[in-house]
Each structure stands twice: as C-alpha cells, then as structure tokens.
Amino acid sequence: MSLIEIRGLTHVYSQGTPFEKTAIEGLELAIEAGQTVGLIGHTGSGKSTLISHLNALLKPTAGTVLLDGEDIFASKAAIRRARSRVGVVFQYPEHQLFEETVYKDIAYGPKNQKLDEAEIDRRVRQAAAFVGLDEAVFDQSPLELSGGQKRRAAIAGVLAMEPELLVLDEPAAGLDPAGREDLLEKLFAWRQARAATVLLVTHDMSVAARCERIIVMSDGRIAMDGAPQDVFARGDQLQAIGLELPSAARIAALLRDRGAAIPPSVYTTEQLADAILALWRKGGAAC
Ligand SMILES: Nc1ncnc2c1ncn2[C@@H]1O[C@H](COP(=O)(O)OP(=O)(O)OP(=O)(O)O)[C@@H](O)[C@H]1O
Ligand SMILES: [Mg+2]
Question: Hey, which bits of the chain come out as E strands?
Fold first, then answer.
C-alpha cells in the first residue's frame, strides 16, 4: 500500500462565484514511503493547492486523499492523524508563525500531538538546533525574526512533530545561496537519518535534480512523473510548459550540440564535471 494515494482529486476555488477557478483536475498520484519527490511546475500550475490537501488543510472538491489507505477526511480523528503524520511547511512560512514567542511556535505541533512537556522541550531544542536557529531567539516574538530566521522557525516547528511525510513548499526561496545550500543539506540529512518521505516543491531545477523522483505539474494536472534523468531528457516538453532544464543539463546539451560525447543522463553539476573529466582524460578523442 502506498503511503499517500490521491484518487481523482479536483479542487475548485470560489465555486459558484464569478471568481471560480479549477486549480486541480482529476489528479491521480501515489507516493511510496521513503521516497524523495520533487514537485515542479510553472507558477499557478497547482502545486501549493495539491500539497494543501495532504494534511487536510484544503478539502477536495472531488476525489479522495488516502493516507495508508485511509481517507484523511473520513472522520475528525482521521484529520487529526493526517495533521500529525504529514508535516507541511507552506510557501510563505511567516504566515505559519502566530504564537507570541518563537519557542511556543515551534512547540505548537508537538503540543497538539499531546506529548509530555519534557519531550516537547527536547523536540523544540533539537529541531531549532537542527535548522540553525539560536536558542537566544526563543523568547522573542516570531515577528521580530529576519526572513531567513522565520523560515527556519517554521521548518523547525514542522520537524519537531517528527512527521512521516515532510512536505516543503519552496523551503529555500528568499535565502542567499549559502543559506539555501545549508538548509537543503540539512533537510536531506534529516530525511536520511529518519528514512522519512519528503515532497519538495521547488522552482529550482537543480534542487529537483537531487530528488529520486520528479513530478511535473502543468495547468492542474500531472504532465510528467519519473526519475530525474527521464524527466530532464524531455527538455523540449519541459520548455513547452514553461520550465527550464537544470543549468548542468543545459550546458551538457550545448556541449553535445558542439560535438562532445556527453551522455544524455547528465543533469547535475557533479555528473557534468565527471563527464568532462572523462573526455579530458581520453585526450579529447571523443570531442
Ligand atoms: N485562495 C485562492 N482563491 C482562488 N484561486 C486561487 C487561490 N489559491 C490559488 N488559486 C489559483 O489556483 C491556481 C493554482 O494555484 P497554486 O497556488 O496552487 O499554484 P502553484 O503551482 O503553487 O503556483 P506558484 O508556483 O506561483 O506557487 C492558480 O491559478 C491560482 O491563481
Ligand atoms: Mg505555490
């Protein structure tokens, strides 16, 4: 059984009004436990709408979302279970911070899980340390934090729940390159240590390239779904729906156009470096 199974999911905003908008239509998707999935798609393609269904924040207009085979809207208890097992860091994490102190904010999720005080405290400190948030800010209002710190606090609040499925909507947006790399390294390390399932929404193709599976959305539907090398082999199709290849894949394509024997499976900077080195070691014979 899949961890998440989505059947015929449709979401219509403001139904029956002049502002009616079908954001997702008839979507079918299964996510297996332990997978790291990158979700990409042009702006407005429905990514945030889709993930908001995974912890029952949005109710499907039609269709169902199953968590371990159970409809997450089956009962109040099912909704509670989904909110405890699926942790979602939304696109604008500052909207997710609402308690009077940073500590209370990070503790909010574990508290809802009815953990005892000592365990909540352990989780809060561990999660804050993990995302690189200094305990000196614990007593501050979240509103006093910088943009990067707010993001880290929101992520810490979700990690402190120790979710089985961690969903992150553009977690690195707005961070400088060093901060972005640091955060991604930490998230991948967290996933590795806990064997958790991760769904990462991103506009950054080089981030998606680090996932084992990529789902591409376009106009409320799934346009592609597969291993990065298979998705990135379809550069023309990606371009047609407003997406670019990762920069390493673009450079590899340019080199191929110029006659270099770079395999089509190259899409990360490491792979590109290895491919160029291999050609160079062959004395450029293949060029
Ligand atoms: N609360 C809302 N009310 C009405 N329409 C909405 C609402 N939220 C999103 N939409 C519309 O639904 C569609 C899908 O939006 P969604 O935010 O899910 O896209 P997205 O892929 O996350 O985009 P982005 O990459 O910009 O974050 C868009 O056309 C958007 O304008
Ligand atoms: Mg979005």
Answer: 4-13, 21-31, 36-41, 62-67, 70-71, 86-89, 165-169, 197-201, 213-218, 221-226
